[in-house]
């Protein structure tokens, strides 16, 4: 009889844990047509312009297509243009919510060869184009990009005796080069730690907003911010962050001492947080014990860090042992899921480099309430 009671108790703890695990890791229902986001990412047009300028400038280094010029007399002239993106600006469009207007200033030289003669033709170009905002799904990542759809204005100015003959071919070459290139990447969202099942893009004056629906169950919708972003920001409900942490913990399973840390609710006031945490002990008869963990959220280097400082014991199952929740949170690294999840939503998280100039995002601040957590940052 005693053995049966002990076995029943063990099955009860394990069964409760498995039921909780199944609920957390369940597949959410299909997205409705009018779905709401649980993560919002915003960028100003100034931030988008820096990202796009870096990407196009890097791509322009590979533009080496040869063109030919046939003057009225003499041999055909072979020309290899080399270009430099001096300036590139993206603007939102009042008439097209799925478009961005691109303005660029380009300079370069056309290296020419005609028979035994060789030389350079310096040139400048002023460009205005309409781009279409695209959402491209690539495996577990979703990319937001701008594709040149229509050249609205292109003026090429050349210098030198052959410059006049080169202007027309250079205009046609630049038009083809811009249209044939792939989409200009603006940002990528998603990955193992932040699976995405829906993404769409909206533009308002001076701002591009990426609305995301994660593939976690038990997340909560997040409404729009009331103030415009500085350079970029990310918003999510605390329940969405808890869902991210719970999936990470239950996927990892029992760690040292056969204990699973189970974050269950999160409350925030500025940079101060209060986390409801359950520890599941699965070895032997098993037990669970609840704690309320207090701590702070801060920016450390380029990372967002949750730093627990105090744990207050709460309810527990019969025969529950004693454990140090702060030590276990550090040991299992569950809270590092915050860092990874936020990183996979940061605009232009993959830094780009042109020559000696490298563009990389940096987190500068975090604040939260019981309704929203907001991470802000810059492009360095």
Model description:
- The protein is of the alpha+beta class and 380 residues long.
- The protein folds into two domains: 180 residues, no CATH class; 141 residues, Bactericidal permeability-increasing protein, domain 1 (Super Roll), CATH 3.15.10.10.
- The protein has six helices and 18 strands.
- The strands form four sheets. Strands 8-9-1-10-18-17 form a six-stranded antiparallel sheet. The chain has a six-stranded antiparallel sheet with strand order 2-3-4-5-6-7.
- The protein is elongated, with a radius of gyration of 28 Å.
The total tally of domains equals 2
Spans of at least 5 consecutive residues with low confidence: 1-9
Mean pLDDT: 84
Q: What is the H/E string?
A: HEHEEEEEHEEEEHEEEEHHEEEE
- Let me know the largest β-sheet: 6 strands, antiparallel
Number of β-strand runs: 18
Radius of gyration: 28 Å
Q: Please report the distance between the alpha carbons of the first and last residues.
A: 69 Å
Give the number of helices.
6
Major sheet: arrangement of strands? 8-9-1-10-18-17
Proportion of residues in β-strands: over 45%
Helix content: 10-25%
* Overall body shape: elongated
Which structural class is indicated by helix and strand composition?
A: alpha+beta
**What is the multimeric organization of the chains shown?**
single chain
Note the topology.
Blueprint (H helix, E strand, L loop, with lengths): L1 H23 L14 E6 H16 L6 E3 L7 E16 L6 E16 L2 E22 L2 E18 L4 H18 L3 E6 L6 E9 L2 E8 L17 E5 L1 H15 L6 E11 L2 E10 L5 E14 L2 E14 L8 H8 L3 H8 L8 E3 L2 E3 L1 E8 L4 E7 L1
